[in-house]
Write a structure and sequence with these properties.
single chain; alpha+beta; Diaminopimelate Epimerase, Chain A, domain 1; 2 domains; about 40% strand
């Protein structure tokens, strides 16, 4: 039976965090139906769970944004494993190896009688070009920022491969609330700069209980503003380590990021890096997720 779930990720409260549609039993669907379902839920991201096709992983996943198929989506991965947990409840810890177009990641469910937490362990995203001068000016104009708004410790830098983000550090978290970006200009810049999204963040957050506060704009992939991005926070972790903006203790660095509260969908992402020497070896992105509703797909 094909089962559909609506799940809010990176939150423990319904109607907050980042929503995703999860489809379990997708092996029963032909390719045309799979794409039709992705279009049906085109208001947000969706993930289809499929059986493993080799011994090096436990399940496969295919991801879709409103504009088409994606290699990997962090919050939809949390949503998928929350749905799997609903189908097969457990207390304790279980790790599954998940395969998608971007490769294989490990996803661990930590469950107690009171809480569920999901953690994605993956390879660090590479850091790319730093933007300055003439290349940076149109980005600031599209975000309606001034150079004085930028954190001088934080170079504006591309991160990731395939699905890339431009990381833009701001002096004050309060400035994030006043952002009114030009989405058409950002969509054009996405093509020119080869970045799928723009991730302004601040290490001086205006909200409590976090290290960073952020927003995410991805109009080029059909998402004007993404509520909570696990992928971007993983990239931010690598970036903060590379620029020595996080303390490292016993080969580990960690931080908590908050996002989505500007959209009334507040969420929290926990990020931890394993570090050897000056190199980040692995990145773990973790958070909670809650199933809002579920049901079968009618034939």
């Amino acid at each position: 039976m094909v089962r559909l779930f609506h799940v809010d990720a990176f939150t423990a409260e319904r109607f907050s965090g980042n929503p995703a549609t999860v489809i379990l039993g997708a092996e029963a669907l032909d390719e045309a139906t799979l794409h039709a379902l992705a279009r049906e839920f085109g208001h947000g991201d969706s993930v289809f769970a499929l059986p493993a096709d080799a011994s090096d992983h436990d399940l496969s996943a295919r991801f879709f944004t409103p504009r088409g198929e994606s290699a990997f989506i962090g919050h939809a991965t949390l949503a998928l494993h929350a749905a799997l947990h609903t189908v097969d409840p457990l207390c304790g810890t279980r790790t599954r190896r998940q395969k998608q177009k971007s490769g294989i990641v490990e996803v661990t469910t930590h469950a107690t009688a009171d809480a569920r937490r999901y953690a994605i362990r993956q390879s660090p995203a590479p850091l790319g070009a730093v933007l300055d001068g003439a290349a940076l000016a149109p980005v600031l104009a599209a975000l309606r920022l001034e150079r004085a708004d930028l954190d001088p410790r934080c170079p504006v830098q591309v991160a990731g491969s395939g699905s890339t983000r431009l990381l833009i550090g701001l002096r004050e978290g309060a400035r994030l609330a006043r952002l009114r970006p030009d989405h058409l200009a950002l969509a054009r810049l996405s093509g020119q700069l080869e970045v799928a999204g723009f991730f302004p963040f601040s290490l001086a957050p205006a909200v409590p209980d976090c290290t960073s506060e952020a927003r995410m704009f991805c109009p080029a992939i059909g998402i004007a503003e993404d509520p909570v991005s696990g992928n971007a926070h993983g990239m931010l972790g690598v970036y903060l380590c590379a620029h020595r903006l996080l303390p490292v203790r016993d080969g580990h660095a960690a931080f908590t990021g908050r996002q989505g509260h500007h959209m009334r969908r507040g969420g929290r992402v926990q990020v931890e890096m394993e570090i050897a020497g000056a190199m980040v070896r692995t990145v773990t992105i973790a958070g909670e997720a809650v199933v809002v509703y579920e049901g079968p797909l009618r034939e």
